[in-house]
Amino acid sequence: MATVYHPAPRFASNEGVLGALSAALGDLLAEAHEEHGEILLRVQREGIETALRTLRDEHGYQQLMEIAGADYPDRAERFEVVYMLLSLTKNHRIMVKVRASEATPVPTVTTLWPNAGWLEREVFDMYGVVFAGNADLRRILTDYGFEGHPFRKDFPLTGYTELRYSEELKRVVYEPVKLAQDLRQFDFMSPWEGADYVLPGDEKAATPPVGDPKTTEKPADTGAGAKADAKAAEKAPAKAAATPAPSAPEPTESRPARKPRKAKVADTKAATEPEAKAKKPRAPRKKKDEA
Q1: What angle do CA 184, 72, 23 make, to 5 degrees?
Q2: Could you give the residue ranges of the DSSP H alpha helices within 115-160?
Q3: Which of 53, 162, 229, 257 is the most exposed, fewest CB within 10 Å of its CB?
Q4: Which residue has the higher pLDDT, 186 or 101?
């Protein structure tokens, strides 16, 4: 079998990567650590373009796979923008993070990767993070005229307008959002483990513990007490004597014997099979000695 050679290792190791990248970024790096088998680098917001350029050109992380967002309302800079990079030559991935707020724009990286334009638009649409330098920073997932940013933790679930096409008016209309039912919270806890609280209706199933079970060792024991057992014992023999034991049923009348048939089974062949054609008698074979 032929040996297949890969340009990159099948499983890339993180050994030495954290130290090398931390030294390369220098003052641009705010924090670096390894978590869940991945290298996480947090850089200064103003230097994100320079940091990603260094990682792309000098360390072989050629592809920008994704830009994601996260919201932490309790922080002063509540938003996190996460850049996920892939090195094709090393078969290795890293994540680079920056923090931002509503009033602090993040420099665009469309100068490094053209696909960052769409990814930045998605983060802007869902979280409201502004990317300075993006020439086409428009909403990409929500409707026209949509207000607010749906992935924020404080985004209300009701009170906004929705866009739809009206068959009656034959045009696009805006109207308040109407929910068919109120928001419900579902508990997806495993039924085998059980919930920490009593489910509605389960309080009826709570019964006091049963003591020694009552058993009946003979038919006269009814389980209702000694008086009931005494009456049952008096009635049981009388009822048994009054009811006669069932007897075996009388035999049914047998069918009279038939007269034996005269003909045999072999005699019916002529009547059931068609007449055979007459065949000429075959001449007897001559023996070898006679020949």
Answers
A1: 145
A2: 116-127
A3: 257
A4: 101
User: How far apart, in whole angstroms, are the C-alpha atoms of residue 112 and residue 129?
Assistant: 19
Of 32, 45, 33, 83, nearest in space to 61 by CA: 83
Q: What is the DSSP letter of 20?
A: H
How far apart CA 47 and CA 28 sit, in angstroms, is 6
pLDDT tens per residue across span 236-257: 555 555 566 677 777 666 666 7
Mode of pairing for the β-strands spanning 171-176 and 161-166: antiparallel
| Contact present, 80 and 67 (Cβ < 8 Å) | no
Distance between CA atoms of 76 and 89, rounded to whole angstroms? 39
- Measure the CA–CA gap between 98 and 105, rounded to whole angstroms: 11
Distance CA 217, CA 220 (A): 8
Cα–Cα nearest to 120, from 72, 51, 64: 64
> Which residues neighbour 29 within 8 Å (Cβ) at sequence distance 6 or greater?
22, 41, 42, 43, 44, 51
d(CA 73, CA 171): 39
How far is residue 83's CA from residue 90's CA, in Å, rounded to a whole number?
Answer: 18
51 by Cβ neighbours in 10 Å (0-12 / 13-18 / 19+) ranks as buried
Helices assigned H by DSSP within 172-282? 226-242, 269-272
Residue type, position 203, single letter: E
Tokens of 204: 């009826």
pLDDT tens across 167-198, in order? 999 998 888 877 666 666 666 555 555 566 67
Burial string for 110-137 (b: 16+ CB within 10 Å, else e) reads beebeebbebbbbbbbbbbbbbeebeeb
